[in-house]
Design brief:
The protein is an alpha+beta fold. It has four domains: 139 residues, Beta Polymerase, domain 2; 67 residues, Hydrophobic Seed Protein (Orthogonal Bundle), CATH 1.10.110.30; 114 residues; 45 residues, no CATH class. The chain is built from 21 helices and twelve strands. The strands form three sheets. It has an eight-stranded mixed β-sheet with strand order 1-10-9-2-3-6-5-4. A two-stranded antiparallel sheet has the order 7-8. A two-stranded parallel ribbon has the order 11-12. Strand 7 and strand 8 form a beta hairpin. It is elongated and about 80 Å long. The protein starts with a strand and ends with a helix.
Length: 397
């Protein structure tokens, strides 16, 4: 049973007033904005991207919208959905649908459905609210009261069994929004985890949700929540260690890979690499996670024992900044901070061409010479070009 909106009479007006809606409301007046965008509007947010439900043909509507807004259209034939990018906004369109599950954890079998069926297939009541551009509002039972109480509640008892990735979304939403988990929903989640529900999902789907969770501003709290779940490898998450590492992490570092790497320090490199591959991590992110997990402990001693800037550089050079930050959190804070904030940015006034012109043979000698010059520069012994060239030539010999 879908309840019409009554507690918030201006919800449709709020949705129509969004920047993302202003240029499209006249193109698709009967489209429904649904899910997180409506939830966030009612919480006082201004979402830039919209999920839209079309009660007829979403692909045709997407092409109409793309043409009207001068945007790009990407059609996802398998699911009958489409994405439109226009004016700095993203619109994900789907035909109203109903779902059934052949087995726990399987991808759903999708068939066309009504708006009511589409709302009732969603993860939590607060995400099952829809508002149309022509002023209509519908919501699942309890959606508005749960939103007002800031509570997450599933729509049916098999929710986590049908789609166990909702367990990770539960944590993501609860920590991001500061919502409580309704008592019955919490019991269902605990039972699903204990019963091995996560093992019924393909690793790539788990990986997709885990990456989203790790990119949240609340990732520390979220990872602490799920670290004891059976996700494929034993995660040992030290929140205090992670927070110290994050305090050292420079702006060009990645919070998500550092956090995951910090929780994987007890996992053997081969097993960790295999797990990350199975989860669908791209190679660069996988390698940084492994470096954090393995290199941080290895370089911590070297950094702590370094007495000169060149010695710090010898240890940290070529190591991801995330691993250096984690090594600093493990005990080498002063050296890690010096490298991350200053030493790694030091450059030379000479380059390989200068060395070749000075008679250094092409090959390894050039690299060795430049390293010697940089070490001298770091230690304050080669402040200018002439001194750096002299240090390089000495290093080449």
């Amino acid at each position: 049973m879908i309840a019409p909106m009554t507690p918030v009479p201006d919800v449709a007006e709020r949705v129509r007033a969004l920047p993302a809606a202003a240029s499209m409301a006249g193109v698709l007046p009967h489209a429904w904005v649904v899910g997180g965008a409506v939830r966030d509007v009612l919480l006082g947010g201004v979402p830039e991207d919209l999920d839209l439900i079309i009660e007829t043909d979403a692909v045709a509507a997407a092409r109409q919208l793309g043409e009207a807004l001068g945007g790009s259209v990407l059609v996802h034939d398998r699911f009958g959905t489409a994405t439109v990018r226009a004016g700095g906004h993203v619109y994900d369109l789907a035909t109203a649908r109903a779902e059934s599950y052949a087995r726990p954890g399987a991808l759903p079998d999708v068939q066309p459905g009504t708006l009511e069926e589409d709302l009732l297939r969603r993860d939590f009541t607060v995400n099952a609210i829809a508002a149309s551009f022509d002023g209509r509002v519908c919501a699942a039972p309890g959606a508005f009261s749960d939103l007002d109480a800031r509570v997450l509640r599933v729509l049916h008892e098999r929710s986590f069994l049908d789609d166990p990735t909702r367990l990770l979304r539960l944590v993501r939403y609860a920590t991001r929004l500061g919502f409580k988990v309704e008592e019955g929903t919490a019991a269902l989640a605990d039972a699903a985890v204990a019963g091995g529900a996560l093992d019924t999902v393909t690793p790539t789907r788990i990986g997709g949700e885990l990456r989203l969770l790790l990119r949240e501003p609340s990732a520390v709290e979220a990872l602490a929540w799920v670290a004891e779940w059976p996700l494929g490898v034993p995660l040992l998450f030290d929140r205090s260690l992670a927070e110290r590492a994050l305090a050292l992490l420079p702006e060009d570092g990645r919070t998500d890979v550092l956090l995951l790497g910090s929780a994987c320090r007890s996992v053997a490199p081969a097993a960790l690499t295999s797990w990350l591959d199975a989860l669908g991590f791209v190679a660069r992110d996988r390698d940084v996670v492994v470096a954090c997990a393995q290199a941080a402990d290895r370089i911590e001693g070297g950094l702590a024992g370094a007495s000169r800037p060149s010695e710090i550089a010898a240890v940290a050079r070529g190591v991801p900044v995330e691993a250096v930050a984690l090594a600093g959190a493990l005990g080498a804070e002063a050296a890690a901070r010096a490298w991350l904030s200053d030493l790694r940015h030091v450059t030379l006034a000479i380059d390989g061409a200068d060395l070749l012109a000075a008679g250094v043979p092409q090959g390894e000698a050039v690299g060795r010479a430049l390293t010697a010059a940089l070490d001298a520069r770091l230690d304050g012994a080669a402040p200018d070009r002439d001194a750096q060239l002299a240090a390089a030539l000495a290093g080449a010999r």
